[in-house]
Sequence to fold (279 residues):
Amino acid sequence: MATLPNLKIRALGEAGVWIKGQPVHWRARSSRDLLFYLLSYPEGRHRQEILSTLWQLEPSSQSYRRLRLTLHRLRAVLGGPESVLFDLEREHLRLNPGVLEASDLYAFYTTLGQAQQAPSTELRMVKYRQALGLYSDFMMGEETEWVQEARETHRQFYVQAAVELALELCMDSPGSCDQMVQALIQALQADPYLGEDYHQWLMRCLTHAEGKYAALEHYRRLIHFLREQLGERPMLETRDLAEQIRRGERVLCQPPEQHPHGFNCPLTAGTCKKWSSLV
Fold:
């Protein structure tokens, strides 16, 4: 089954499916949920896991009938039995690569994979920027448990990509503090729990890009966040850094020492390659 030019799937942002430019109107919510669930797991999922995750059902003749009916409806929407593949031996369902290619999630992950494998720093930064521009939170506005779990997984790849871009800029263009600031803000807005050392890095870069008052303003927001969300104070190292900035001392716009360029980013652990290898 080749790429489907008439099919468009949007999973990042407000979810939707279009065929020949017309939105799909689902006969049942279950077939829509199955599509977006499988979209988040391109390697496939065991049918028992699908039953449990999507509908909180135990394996039974009745629950398997429900899955077969849902699968039949989804295949009818997507254009035929080959659109969703079933591995009888493993009891796995997975989307046909042509369906995966029709999604913005595929574009996001394959662009990240291209960034990781880019032969030059310049091209790597271009690809990271493209990937960041493609991203919005998965199925925005929908809050079922499986959607939230998938959303957090996809969001972490976005966060890591933003940090990787900042590291690339730091290594290749150490004077580009304004661009590093933008990348770090993207990462920390998506995941403020990323680590206090990344907040320190942003404070340092802000002193160069926008001045000490911008850095101190971020420090004040960090104090509020830690107090309200964790009931904690900033680390002594962060407080000392803020005092240095307040006194007007020069600080270096450098990344955390324990995470030099090329830190253990899950983008290198096979997920992006897995998406690419399936199409």
